[in-house]
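Late entry, N,N,N-trimethyl-histidine complex.
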Amino acid sequence: MPPQVRLHQIFDWDSPQQNARLRRELAAGLLQTQASIAPKFFYDKLGSRLFEAITELPEYYPTRTEAAIFSEHLPAIRQALGQGFTLIDLGCGSCGKAGRLFHAGVMPSRYVAVDISVDFMRDSLQQLKRELPGIEMMGVGLDFTHELALPDDIPSQRRVFFYPGSSIGNFSPPEAARFLRGLAEQLDASGGLLIGVDLIKDSALLDAAYDDALGVTAAFNRNLLRHVNARLDADFGIGDWQHVAFYNAADARIEMHLEARRPLTVSWPETAGRSVRRFAAGERIHTENSYKYSPDGFAALLASAGFAEIEMWTGPRGWFALFFARRAE
Ligand code: AVJ
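Prediction complete; structure with ligand written out below:
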């Protein structure tokens, strides 16, 4: 018998309404003068797997640096979180980070796994429940970058939002402040936010982390077009597009783009006829920003978003930071 894990599918890639909304969003992004596709479209099932592979690359330091900070500062983290809390894991993916925390003894009484890719999450969550039957577990399929509407049966007391991996970097700083404020508003005084943030560092390290020798990040970026072809019935030729990633120091962010190798035309069906977008050779589609922060800069962002009692842990090289903060009174 499969273990008891409740699944709420608030967001469903394939519900007709959401599919229509996503198609509109994709079409609008592609028709802008500077074409763009939102990073959430990376995470179809293959994209989620490719991201898991990225986290194992030698050049991609964030995941293992964050894991090292967790193991080194476990007692302090355990103390900050206390006991009897509900861990709400935003973008849980394979639930691996939460699982490692639980096995290391930082254990909530309830675990709420939230991800846009619910199919990818389901099996991992059931496996985790098998390993740790004492924790109440729930899966929520939700596009929390759109709105953080959690199911009513999640108690509002003692919530701890868990947002590791520097996923916050996908938001621009003003968007991040708005998003974090939304989290603060869903916390009570005994809860908090545990968040991982990638730090500003030498640009050669950053460039390599997003343009690895094996080409996994390139595959992850280009897989976006497969997903868009499926979702929008578009006709992107995957081989026509090249992965471009670089650190933009002026804006403190990694930018990822897909660059047309030659003049290209992409089209997709509309209510009447087809929409067409032409690209010149070398023209780019902007697919991701990954903002980097200084420790003080991120603490200030947290404070501006309504957080206080901010604690921070970093590794020996200062490459990555883990913050815990409570809602300001
Ligand atoms: C999942 C947004 C944290 O920005 O490092 C990794 C995504 N993109 N390699 C990041 C990503 C290319 C990742 N985040």
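Residues 140 and 150 are 8 Å apart (CA to CA). Will revisit in the morning.
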